[in-house]
Amino acid sequence: MKPRMLIILLLALPLAAPASAPAKIRIVASTSDLASIAEIIGGDLVEADAIVSGKKDPHFVEILPSYMVKVARADIYLKVGGDLDYWADRIIDGSQNGKLLIVDCSQNVEFLEKPTTRIDASMGDIHRQGNPHYWLDPANGAIIAETITAALTRTDPDNGAAYESGLAAFRVRLETKMEEWRRIAEPLRGTEIITYHNSWPYFARAFGIEVVGFVEPQPGIEPTPSHTAQLISMVRSRKIKIIGKEPYFNSRTPESIARQSGALVVELPPSVGGAADATDYFALFDALLSRLVESKGR
Fold first, then answer.
1. If we measure between CA atoms, which residue out of 236, 256, 140, 107 comes closest to residue 196?
2. How far is CA 55 from the centre of its chain?
């Protein structure tokens, strides 16, 4: 066969279709923190999205149809649990996704501040199982990672070894970062601060900080003039330097306390994405500790 004719015949042959990439495990998480840990564990095998960004209050979420559509396409839903994301049940129910694996990431976590008395409305936004901001202790991050790894392996057993490898790498990185974080946090040990909301008992325990008051008189209750006056007096008398504020709360009252007491308002993101430098679960702690250490040194 002549070369020219061979070339023409080859050009006429249909091109082989490229091999399609394996489908990723689709994960929807209530918060950006859980989504971040899932992405670190699963790597290229997963696609994770969060209902609540780091700059939004996870306690109160407007239920949108788009959230239900997102969950309808998911394989796994990651819940914070502890009654924090009670709203997630409505989204899950509305998705009508009968194949969805629902995972409570608080399982195996020891909750702090469990109520020991009867709860009523006057106590504000009290959670029956205890304080639900457990991801802010890195030790609990390891527990969350184990729970997510088990869910991924159950959903995608063919890649179980890859997920276990991701978990092992997460643990090693966490141990290394904990040594670094403890060194960075040493100047903070015993430091008294006040915060807007009671988001920080796990973080405070992990790094030796003492949260001695809150801008809210009760969780979820707007600050009152009388409570604010008491805080100003306490900040002055105890020479408290730092007022921590989550990014989704109003700055007016914390700034007023700061002006009248000499303290400094420090924005503390309690979730991944709550600040530009809190890009993943590990960077979240880098960002928090750097803000606190810098603020104490002023």
1. 256
2. 11
Q: Which residues of 246-273 are buried (b: 16+ CB within 10 A; e: fewer)?
A: bbbbeeebbebbbeebebbbbbbbbbbb
Reported as a single tens digit per residue, the pLDDT across 204-244 is: 999 999 999 999 998 888 999 999 999 999 999 999 999 99
The reported pTM is: 0.89
Separation between Cα atoms, residue 32 and residue 17, nearest integer Å: 37
Q: What confidence score (pLDDT) does residue 10 get? A: 38
**Matching residue, tokens 């700059």:** 55
Least confident of 44-48, 93-97, 118-122, 262-266: 118-122
Helices and strands counted in the chain (H then E): 10, 8
| Domains located in the chain, CATH noted | 25-108+122-181 (3.40.50.1980), 185-296 (3.40.50.1980)
Compute the CA torsion angle 56, 61, 62, 66 (nearest 10 deg). Answer: 80
Residue 252 backbone phi and psi in degrees, to 5: -60, -55
Secondary structure letter of residue 242 according to DSSP? E
Tokens of 102: 């629902």
Instruction: Outline where the chain has alpha helix (H).
Output: 3-12, 32-42, 65-72, 88-95, 138-155, 160-185, 201-207, 225-238, 252-261, 281-296
User: Measured between alpha carbons, how far is 167 from 150 in angstroms, rounded to an integer?
Assistant: 10
Distance CA 191, CA 209 (A): 5
Tell me if 264 sits within 8 A of 243, measured CB to CB. Answer: yes
